[in-house]
Amino acid sequence: MKFIVCENYEEMSKAGAKIIADLLKSKPKCVLGLATGSTPVGMYEELRRMNKAGEITFKDVTTYNLDEYYPLAPDHDQSYRYFMNHNLFDHVDIDKSRTHVPNGLAEDPAAEGAAYDKAVEDAGNVDIQVLGVGQNGHIGFNEPEDALYVGTHLTSLTDNTIEANSRFFASKADVPTKAITMGMGTIMKARKILVLASGKNKHYVIENMLNDRITCHIPSTLLKTHPDVIVICDRAAFEG
Questions:
Q1: What is the pLDDT of residue 90?
Q2: Which of 3, 39, 60, 105 could be stapled to 29 by a disulfide with Cβ–Cβ 3.0 to 4.6 Å?
Q3: What pLDDT, on the 0 to 100 scale, is given for residue 167?
Q4: Residue of 46, 68, 117, 143 marked active site
Q5: How far is Cα 27 from Cα 123, in angstroms, rounded to an integer?
Q6: CA torsion, points 13, 16, 21, 23, in degrees to nearest 10?
Q7: What CATH number is given for 2-239 in this structure?
Q8: 136 carries an active-site annotation
Q9: Which residue among the candidates 87, 136, 142, 208 is catalytic per the annotation?
């Protein structure tokens, strides 16, 4: 696990975008695993700028997102499909038919999860998986538990996560309490994992990713077992 400590959020975002851009240049038909939330927004803005400037292209790229609120329609302004369209897909030369987000209205979430995992596998698995980390160490919506799931599945969100995400909704009561998320096994199949963390409230997570312990109660610590992980954080997250 390699750590890159940046001075601020902007520097972190540009460092993350460069890693993605380098992949797009070396492997134009790559498969990207994408994340939502406030942390990667700056990286997506930089990728949009680079695309507009003609430095990179997304025309042959395939994407798979980590998760989606359940039950939430893709055109809901707080859905992760809406987020990705608004922050990246609507502004770059990507074929939207090759962008994938779990179906937040799936009648059978278990079948949706199995089909999603098969689609990722059939695509050759993810080349770079982008991850944010929650204050409690969740990645995707794999929340702290005694045991974690391997495949994509329906999960309940912890109160900590609901509280953290309530800033995006009119009230905490409006935040969905469930989500469909990639499981740890699907995430760990990515060839490379890129973790972004910003702000003092992520110091606990970064501190536990730096030590020699692994626990399902801090899911991000499981990334220590992956052979190629880059963690890019700002100084506030690293030093606390």
A1: 98
A2: 60
A3: 87
A4: 143
A5: 14
A6: -170
A7: 3.40.50.1360
A8: yes
A9: 136
Q: Which of 29-38, 119-128, 154-163, 189-198 has the lowest mean pLDDT?
A: 154-163
What is the Cα 206 distance to its own chain's centre?
Answer: 16
Query: Which candidate in 46, 51, 67, 165 is catalytic?
Result: 67
Asked whether 99 and 63 are in contact (CB, 8 A), the reply is: yes
Preceding omega of 71 cis (within 30 degrees of 0): yes
Dihedrals φ, ψ of 160, to 5°? -60, -45
Cα-based torsion angle of the residue sequence 219, 199, 52, 88 in order, rounded to the nearest 10 degrees: 40
Percent of the chain with pLDDT over 90: 92
